[in-house]
Amino acid sequence: MNLEIIVSSRKAVPIYEQIETQIEDAILNGVLKEGEVLPGIRTLAKMLRVSVITVQKAYENLNRKGLIFSAAGRGTMVAAVDQKAMMETRLAQLDDLLQQSADLAKAMHLSFSQTSARLQQFMEADPPKEGSASKGELE
Predict the structure, then answer these.
(1) Are 23 and 63 in contact (CB under 8 A)?
(2) H or E stretch including 81?
(3) pTM of the prediction?
(4) At a CB cut-off of 8 Å and minimum separation 6, what does 132 contact?
(5) Please, are residues 20 and 28 in contact by the beta-carbon 8 Å criterion?
(6) What count of other Cβ atoms lies within 10 Å of the Cβ of residue 4?
(7) How far is the C-alpha of 80 from the C-alpha of 14, rounded, in Å?
(8) By the 8 A CB rule, do 130 and 8 touch?
(9) Please, what is the Cα angle at 101 between 97 and 103, to 5 degrees?
(10) Which residues of the chain have pLDDT under 50?
(11) Cα–Cα distance measured from residue 139 to residue 120, given in angstroms and rounded to the nearest whole number
């Protein structure tokens, strides 16, 4: 398993959500596969230099979403994911974000072509590189 988790205290997003989102994305994008063992809560907290409670909250949320599970003596593992249901969930999230963007573009009196040109720039750009306070690689 090769996943780098990057957290930053400079972001408005709480650190547990940063951890949760990055692990969720890795699961949904197939980087983390069903049955793969995740680092223990204490291990990941130490790797990222964050509180055990922070990692615990991220793991609890991922567990609640059905993305990971804990098995006595085996650790925390990636759960089987219904890809179709997950895609529908992700598309709903995308729809929400696109609606917010469309509302903002309308409020700014931008044309469809101006708005779509900006979207195209983001679609064609490399993923953003973020500065980090702490990062850990899951191997």
Answers:
(1) no
(2) none
(3) 0.69
(4) 6, 7, 8
(5) no
(6) 12
(7) 27
(8) yes
(9) 115
(10) 129-133
(11) 34
Q: Which 3 state secondary structure label does DSSP give 129?
A: coil
Those residues with Cβ within 8 angstroms of residue 29's Cβ, 6 or more apart along the chain or in another chain: none
- Tokens at residue 48, please? 């990222």
| Structural contact between residues 2 and 45, judged by C-beta atoms closer than 8 angstroms | no
Tokens of 123: 């679609």
* Amino acid at position 34, single letter: E
CATH (residue range 3-138): 1.10.10.10
Classify residue 72 by its DSSP letter: T
DSSP 19-69: HHHHHHHHHHTTSSPTTPEEPPHHHHHHHHT--HHHHHHHHHHHHHTTSEE
User: Cα separation of 10 and 19, whole Å?
Assistant: 14
Contact assessment for residue 68 and residue 26, using Cβ atoms and an 8 Å cutoff: no
Closest by alpha carbon to 19, among 30, 101, 43, 36? 43
